[in-house]
Design a protein that fits this description.
single chain, about 425 residues, mainly alpha, 18 helices, about 60% helix, transmembrane helix, SLC26A/SulP transporter domain-containing protein, transmembrane, membrane
Length: about 425
């Protein structure tokens, strides 16, 4: 580059002219002297660096896979303990009757809902990264498990001949024992799928889940939960439906007003009214109250007593895997979608991050270990997570106390709705980047 002052050309002072050579591609490479040699580390050097072990590196790796070792030593006891204890107790008492009710949706005896409310929560406390989601029984997953247990263990397989030409009775004990075996085997396979997906970093799919999709899918899940509880509110029986439009079929068979049982309806409406009123009071006087009124605990506490004992350790039947592998993969994906949707929603609201891959591993371990204690598949619960947050919960210490994505999960089944939602989101990204 040659710089000639304008003074030399007879122009005023403090001005200049820049003359540049016009370069073609070949000349540009000569002037720039581009280095075409490889300067990065070789494959062998990268492998050597990866296999090298040091104390800081080992500590960081262990803390990444076992997050409790990272955050628990830093726990601000005075600031958080009061809210965490109140929130944990509220969720724990709420979890008891809810666990028993959801076990019925899975076509299992109620006591197995209590088992599912205990062991997976402790596992997630160690390996999870979300501070506000409540792991355990959930209506949607319970319904999916129930469809498998009823398909492989129908009542017709357990008929007892009474010696007459009429239809015999059903051996309830044998049927329930076999259905528990099916549910535990399904849960173990679900956990294995989730752990493997976490190990191969399948959590990258979360990058394609936009905020509207996450909120829409969460709302769609809430619709399924609400409809699944209508038969208990009205005191009627309802057939089980699966697949697309099951939400509409269940609603039509449940809303049979002439068959409504008045006592059940009155209790439900009174409980809902009390919950809504006290929740508004908690919101209005949040700055004056030392901690929110645990109204959920008060409402459900009469239902929360139980004399059952924890489930024994039993190995699930791996011989059933070939019959349930498709169902297990669907439950694994839907359970993770619900879990990460809620996790991202609360993380965004409270300003922290959840590790999508670690959430897969944590959920998989909760299912795998829980299956050995006669638990069935778990994920995070919408209602309990909201209670956990609204009653002052701030950290994972709680656990030891206890858009298009919105149309499709509601009208389709949640597994198909998830596929449609992710596909739409990916197409949106492609159109925005390519057009």
């Amino acid at each position: 580059r040659e710089v000639t002052t304008r003074e030399e050309r007879g122009h005023p002072m403090d001005s200049y002219v820049v003359q540049r050579e016009v370069l073609n591609e070949v000349r540009l490479e000569e002037v720039a002297q581009r280095d075409t040699s490889t300067t990065g580390p070789s494959v062998g050097e990268r492998l050597k660096e990866f296999s090298r072990c040091s104390l800081p590196k080992l500590k960081k790796t262990v803390q990444r896979w076992v997050p409790v070792l990272d955050w628990l030593p830093k726990y601000p006891f005075r600031e958080n303990i009061l809210g965490d204890v109140a929130s944990g107790c509220s969720v724990a008492i709420m979890h008891l009757p809810q666990g028993m009710a959801y076990a019925l949706l899975a076509s299992l005896p109620p006591v197995f809902g209590l088992y599912t409310s205990l062991y997976p929560v402790l596992v997630y406390f160690i390996f999870g990264t979300s501070r506000h989601i409540s792991i355990g029984t959930f209506a949607v997953i319970s319904i999916m498990v129930g469809s498998v247990t009823e398909r492989l263990g129908p009542d017709s397989n357990f008929q007892v001949n009474n010696g007459t030409n009429t239809t015999g009775s059903v051996d309830i004990d044998a049927r329930d024992a076999y259905r528990v075996k099916i549910a535990c085997s399904l849960t173990l396979l679900v956990g294995i799928f989730q752990i493997l997906l976490g190990m191969v970093k399948f959590g990258f799919v979360v990058n394609y889940l936009s905020e509207p999709l996450v909120r829409g899918y969460t709302t769609g899940s809430a619709c399924h939960v609400f409809v699944s509880q209508l038969k208990y509110i009205f005191g009627v029986t309802s057939s089980r439906y699966n697949g697309p439009l099951s939400l509409i079929y269940v609603s039509c068979t449940t809303l049979r007003l002439p068959q409504t049982k008045i006592p059940e309806l009155v209790v439900s409406l009174v409980a809902l009214a009390v919950l809504i009123v006290v929740k508004e009071i908690n919101g209005c006087y949040s700055k004056k109250l030392p901690f929110p009124i645990p109204i959920e605990l008060i409402v459900v506490s009469p239902l929360g007593s139980s004399n059952t004992v924890p489930g024994l350790i039993r190995t699930p039947d791996v011989n059933l895997f070939s019959q349930i592998i498709g169902d297990a993969f669907a439950v694994a994906i839907v359970g993770y979608a619900i879990n990460i949707s809620l996790g991202k929603t609360f993380a965004l609201k409270h300003g922290y991050k959840v590790d999508s891959n670690q959430e897969l591993v944590a959920l998989g371990l909760s299912n795998s270990i829980g299956a050995c204690f006669q638990c069935y598949s778990v994920t995070s619960s919408l209602s309990r997570s909201l209670v956990q947050e609204s009653t002052g919960g701030k950290t994972q210490v709680i656990y030891i106390y206890t858009h298009p994505g919105y149309l499709s999960p509601s009208l389709l089944n949640l597994d198909m709705g998830l596929a449609v939602s992710i596909g739409f989101s990916i197409l949106t990204v492609i159109f925005r980047t390519q057009l």
